[in-house]
Amino acid sequence: MRDDDLIKPSRVKKDLDKLRTEAECLLKEAVSRDEVEAVRIQSLGKKGNISQILKLMGQFPAEERKELGKLANEARDFVEDLIAKSFERLEKKARQKTLSGQIDVTLPGRKPQQGHKHPLTLTSEKILNVLQNLGFDLVQGPEIEHDFYNFEALNVPSDHPAREMQDTFYVDKDVVLRTQTSPVQIRTMLSLKEIPIRIASMGRVYRRDQDVTHSPIFHQIEGLFVDKSVTFSDLKGTLTTFVEKVFSEKARIRMRPSYFPFTEPSAEVDMSCFQCDGAGCRLCKGTGFIEILGAGMVDPEVFKASGFDPEKVSGFAFGIGVERVAMLKYGISDIRHFYENDLRFLAQF
Ligand code: PHE
Question: Are residues 81 and 133 in the same domain?
Fold first, then answer.
């Protein structure tokens, strides 16, 4: 090899500088991955410019090889780094391009609809809470009920005219959809066997009945208190507290003598009509009051059917219509609103 065949170190330095600048310019202007890839192949590929220069290093004496090698390595690192950055830049740009056009970040966010409790749930929870604070324990009973619990044990034998009071859905001869929550009284007394008994029970009841204030399926809350010498004034006190807590101190109450086969004496408790405030309207059928519950002292016959001696214990019971209370509380004039699941209605509670 002749001396002038040797590439001069100064030439190599110049070439390296040139290659760096060239690559830098090309990468700056690159608008696609292909263009960046072309630069990579051209400068760092097996036959790339910088790779070629690195291969020449063996030709130089040790001193120069050290210096030139360092420069060549630096040039390779420099271009490698630029290439990585260019790929990143192009990727970021591509991402932004797909996002813009699909998402308008200035639009207000969509609020998820918040669920909430049904007005009947709110009402029964409120009533049960008041009763629990008065010491009543919560119990449950079946909706498909034996004739015995729904009627017979409640002092309504099959030939009793009181069966006329409630139009019943019969499942078969001896099984009914319960017409009231009162059968829970019998079930509780038969199972607990011991006084004092203080329970409340809430659930669905069924009657063949339908107009603006009656639905074939509705909800009742039953209360029962049995002890040694429970009196009618205990009942009055309990119901007064109930109305004060559930409505307000201002709510007017009326107790009318009434008849239930399973209580003696019996009373119907009315509240002043919220729509006409007592003047009389369609809702209250012109009476100015709306019945919200039936109550009375447990009939001796009921005690006998439930395994208690009416000479030794006494008690009171009451049954509250949850829908009626909810209608009064929220000023709702048609009971069907509760079951139609119209969100315009339900969203107000
Ligand atoms: N069960 C009666 C009804 O549905 C209400 C009631 C319950 C009356 C308890 C007296 C005692 O009408």
Answer: no
Nearest-angstrom CA–CA distance, 324 and 341:
18
Residue 261 near ligand 1, beta carbon < 6 Å? no
d(CA 11, CA 53): 11
Is residue 281, in this structure, part of any structural domain at all? yes
167 and 292 share one domain: yes
Burial of 276 (0-12, 13-18, 19+ CB in 10 A): middle
Ligand 1 centroid from CA 249, angstroms = 24
Average pLDDT, integer, range 331-336: 89
Query: Within this chain, do residues 161 and 259 fall inside the same structural domain, yes or no?
Result: yes
Q: Do 161 and 299 share a domain, yes or no?
A: yes
Q: How far is Cα 2 from Cα 22, in angstroms, rounded to an integer?
A: 31
Single out the residue of 207, 248, 240 nearest to residue 318, CA to CA: 240
Q: How confident is the model at residue 274 (pLDDT cuts 50, 70, 90)?
A: low
Residue nearest to atom 9 of ligand 1 (CA): 318
**More confident: 304 or 332:** 304
Q: Which of these, 261, 328, 316, 339, lies nearest to 291 by C-alpha position?
A: 328
Distance, CA of 147 to CA of 174 (rounded, Å): 5
Task: Return the closest-CA partner of residue 275 out of 287, 265, 284.
Answer: 284
Question: What CATH number is attached to the domain comprising 129?
Answer: 3.30.930.10
Overall residue count recorded for the chain in this entry: 349
Q: How far apart are CA 211 and CA 216, in angstroms?
A: 9
Q: Is 260 found in the same domain as 196?
A: yes
Residue 272 and residue 251 in contact, taking contact as beta carbons nearer than 8 Å: yes
What is the tally of structural domains in the chain? 2
- Residue 331: predicted pLDDT: 85
Verify whether ligand 1 is closer than 6 Å to residue 263 (CB atom): yes
pLDDT of 1 reads 42
**Dihedral sign computed on CA atoms, order 196, 234, 223, 306:** positive
Residue nearest to atom 4 of ligand 1 (CA): 180
Residues 41 and 138 occupy one common structural domain: no
Share of the chain above pLDDT 90, in %: 58
